[in-house]
Structures are given as structure tokens and as C-alpha cells.
Amino acid sequence: MAQFDLNDDGVVVIVGSGAGGGTLGNELAQRGVKVVMLEAGARNEIQDFVNDEWESFAQLAWTDMRVASGSWRVAQDFPNLPAWIVKSVGGSTVHWAGASLRFDEHEFKIASAYGGVKGANLLDWPIIKADLDPWYDKAETKMGVTRTNNIPGLPGNNNFKVMEAGARKLGYKEVSTGRMAINSQPRDGRGFCQQIGFCFQGCKSGAKWSTLYTEIPQGEATGNLEVRPNSHVARIEHDRSGKVTGVTYFDETGALQRQKARVVCVAGNSLESPRLLLNSASSLFPNGLANSSGQVGRNYMRHMTGSVYATFEKPVHMYRGTTMAGIIRDEARHDPSRGFNGGYEMETISIGLPFMAAFLNPGAWGRSFTSALETYPRMAGMWLIGEDMPQESNRVTLDPTAKDKHGLPVANVHYDDHPNDIAMRNHAYRQGAAVYEAVGATVTYPTTPYPSTHNMGTNRMSANPRDGVVNKFGRTHDIKNLFISDGSQFTSGAACNPTLTIVALAIRQADHIAGAMQRRDI
Amino acid sequence: MRTVDPRNRYSRRFLLKGMAAGLPAAAIASSAELSVSDAWAEDGPLAPLTMKTLVKVARDIYPHDFLGDVYYVNAIKPWNGKAASDPAIKTMLEDGVRHLDADAQKRHGVPYVDVGWEEQRVKLLEGVEKTDFFKKLRSDLVVSLYNQHELWKKFGYEGPSADKGGYINRGFNDIDWLPKT
Known about the structure:
Radius of gyration of chain B: 19 Å
Strand content of chain B: under 5%
Structural class of chain B: mainly alpha
Number of helices of chain B: 10
Number of strands of chain A: 17
Shape of chain A: globular
Radius of gyration of chain A: 22 Å
Helix content of chain B: 40-55%
Order of helices and strands of chain B: HHHHHHHHHH
Shape of chain B: elongated
Oligomer: heterodimer
Largest interface: A-B, 47 and 42 residues
Helix content of chain A: 10-25%
Distance between the termini of chain A: 26 Å
Structural class of chain A: alpha/beta
């Protein structure tokens, strides 16, 4: 396995090992580029995963200090847990649900499609869907997405069957077990889904695609990729010309190390990536790296989100089987006659009893709450995921007081719902309840958003350097050899889960970086 | 379809885990007959009556009539240890209970635990809902109560499944009451 010297200034340093970083690392390694991947979390493998929500949370989740602010309810319910994402090798591909959908055409050009939306900072991407389609093809093949490449869909579990029956009664047409990066048949050296449930706790069968046991070992096998777990990057450094020269990071012993680099790619997700750029401020870049536009950390998106759970007379056992293999797409279209821009998906979701107690209605107590919990085996559930409006004031900043264990300022995540988000959520709550009432739900529960799992937009792509942080390849407008490789590049969030798009962009970016290195452009 | 049998079967693993967490012997030996006062027949900085009140408060916050006191005792018990290592926590708990008792005396002429109806006790709790005492107790309880593996089956939740081969042959799609579509 490769081991590179700290003074090797020919390597590409990638910060993070999730959908963006993990994919980019493998793709570069396959092209012969030397890569050092720095991951803040530990290397937990499949055998380490546990089917126990709180124990797994302690093992995998990013629980280092963060601060939530703004009028969103998460700031009140979970003031230090604005996001539920992973700190472990593989990043959030360890706990993601596997839903793998392409953006729609209009979702790449929301400024044009939606027109002026008061209070929102809409911008078209510098690419259109046709630019990304060939890379979506590669991503779907790599990840083994069901209903693409002649891969059959997953079988529907009880939770899906309830949602499907209700959806058909309402007249919804686009209802299926979805496009999932979870093997429905053996593929790529991995087995097929055993309907375990616990997709959010790390897949014990390995049927679900995760960079942890696909991209990363494949990259390591080339001899070009070295992964360093428990390595928390503190700063990105640059020379007098403004080119980045490497990073400093705290290693597993807490000692500060300096890794030199030819190129630095930041893929720490939409909260940590802008935090790192801001924490890397210098006399040359007093507002943080790549921030001449002032857009670093801004336009934070997290999807509209919400859930609807419903209680029935008879058992459902929604937690049995694949957590999110179920989708209704009819509401994903852009149709302003519903009173909002953009659209949303309804996707099956289930959480175990311990998380249901914590998330069904955070802070609630007393008999109306406990009588809901007592219907647990008779519950069905869906997640609502819709496009939220980018707003300049929704942003990640460095908290003025809170520091992490290394003494570094932590991310303050500020979010206010836009009126468009609220109108969409209310519509989605009504439609979700209607789906379940159509098949006999006795009670429905409009459940408030969980801490964010989809974090996007805080280093967005723009054609004009004034409007965003990176260009159409994720290269920062200000610094030639500094790239952003995660969902923080997103100019809009679309009505679908972000991972497939992050992977497609990472494959495309690898091609771009390897080419530029070969041409000695960087 | 396969449903879940809610009856209790203590697994050896749970017993060992419980003992490791310092459960009182009485709680393990015969949970059904455990009385709340027996559970506190050991040293700790909090008075037995304080603990007894906290257990009652715990049940009033998350009332489940099919759960014996043992689950609430298990959930509250760790506060005794936290109070031992942090005087501020001890004060917070004692002041909180004292306040509830004083309010109960004023309104009903008896301490909190002797107020007859849950509805009346809930009114007393609503009076302290915004205090640290209540907020910390509740946010701890939502984990310390519902994360006890032994009560999962009573709620019809089956817990870990990977060690049983998942649900692929154990009813992931066995729902049999839906209307035909």
C-alpha cells in the first residue's frame, strides 16, 4: 500500500473520503496520480458496524462541536447538531440511504426557470444536464444503480407496499422502489440486499455502495492512494503567489503535521469545507481562501425535508428491509400552480424505536406523544425531500466563541426557511397524509425536519467569479490548484438526493485534474 | 404476517450489561415485584424520596402503562451517579423536586408522588417545563428510557437483524391486509 512522504509536493491532497473525496481519490489513482487522502474520522469497516441506532451514532456520526442558529426548528431542538453526517472513512456514504437520482433539466437553471424569487439568491449552474449526463452514466455504472444498466429494482418491503397502495389510490403514477445504489443481485464483488434495515447505520452486507469498500480499496490497490484516517485538516497553506502548497493537519496522536501538495481538493461536506477555507485566512486572503466573491459559506441548502408517519389498525413493521427503497415522483415537477417553485419527492423512511422517540416530535412529552409511540409496529413512514431556495443569509460562518478540541473555530450553521420552503412543506405534509389516509391510516404525524443529512451549496459553482466560489469543474475561481469536490459546489439543490450528482461531478473533476496535471497546467 | 411477541425474555447479555451499569440487584432478580423504594436501598447523594419523585416524574413525562417501574428506575438511576460527581447537578435535581413538592402541597395538600391523578401531576410539570431541571431530565430520559433493549419488544420493535440474516426470509414484505391496487 502506498505511503507518501510529508514533503512530497507532487501529490494531490484530498480532504475527506466520502462520495466526493472517496470517488475522486480512486479516479485519480486509476489515472496514475498520487493521492494522499486525509480523513478526520476513524476507519470503521463493515464488521464494525452495529445494528443499534445510538451505539452506531456514537461510532459514526460527526459529534464534534457545531452551532446551529436561525429560525429553523433544528436550531431549537438540536442546537449543537445542525447536521447528521458521518465522521469515518467513507464519509456519509457509510450511512446514506442509497437513493440515486439525476437532477432534472430545469434544476440546473433555476434562475431562468423560476424567475425572480424574493429573498432568494438563485443562479443557473455553469453546466446543463447534457454536460453531466455522460458522467451520470459512469456514476450509475460504478455504483450499480437499480433500474439503470439493466439492473432490476429492489423488491418492495412492507413500508413501500403501504405507500404504493396509497399512492395508486390517489392516482399517482410514478411509484416504484426507486433507483438505488443497493445491489438487487450480486454485482461488483458484492452481494445483494438482505433486507436488514439499518441502512443508516452502515450496511452489514455490503450490498449498498459506499466508498469505504468500493472506491477506496480499489484506489489503494493501484499503489497510488494513501488514506490517513484520524487526520483532521486545520489549514490549507499557500505561497506568496497565492498558489496552495499543502495542508496542516492534526494526526491520530494530536500532533500537527504538514503535508505538501501539488493540488488540494476539499471534500469535507458543505459544513466543514467552507469552515476550512475560512479557517485558512491569511494576510494575502484575509476573508478566507477562494473568497474574493464573499460567497464562501453562503447559499447553504439542506432540502425542504420533513416526514409523515402514519398509524394503521394492523401491523406494518416498516423497519424491516431496505430503508428508502420506495419513491413517489409525481410531485417532483416544477409547477407553480401549487403555490411554490420546484418540487419534492416522497421516499419511504423508517427509524427504530430509539430514534423514533427522539425525532417524531423533538421535545414532546405526555400521553399524546407516548400513545403515538405505542403504535410503532403499526406505523408506516415517508420522508419528504424537496428543493429549498438558496439564500445568501443561510450560511456557514466561523462561530465567534465555540472551538473544537484542537482550538479551531467551529462551524455556525445559520438557516431560515424561505416562504417557498414552508409552502412546499405544507403541501407535502398534506399529500403525504393523504397517501396514508387513502389506505386507512387512523392518525398521521407531520414530523419536523431532522438534523440535515443533505448539505449543499456553500462553495457554489458559477460562470462569473463574482457570483460563486468555483468554476464548472469545481476549481476555485481565485486559486488555480485548489478544488472543491463535494456537494458544496451545488448551485441548486434539486428535488432529489445529492449523492449521485456528487459522484458524477467527482468523476468528471478527476478527468479534468488529471488532464490539467498532464498538461502542466497545474 | 409475522408479528412480534411482546413478552419479556431476559437475555443473559442484557443481565450482564445491566450489572455492568450498576443496576441494583433487586432490579435484576425480580423486575416485576421491584418496588421503587427497594431500588434506592443503597448509598448515593440523592435521598430515596428524591429518587422516588424523579421516577414518578419520569413516568409522567413518558407514560407507558405496559412498562413496569423497573424501566423508569433504570432510566433515572444514573442521575444518582451524576449528582455524586457534580454538586451543581445534585442541587438542580433537589431544587427541582423541592419546587414540585411545594407546588403540589399548595394545590393539593400532598407531595408530588401522592398527587392522585396523572392529569394533575402533568399540570405541575407544565409549571416547570421551561426549567433546566425539566429540560435536562426529559432530554436524558428520551434516550435512557427508550434505549433499553429489553423494552423494545414491548413496543413491537425487533432491534438488530443482521445477526439473524436480515428480514429477507423473515417477513420484510409479508403485509397481508392492504387493498388490492
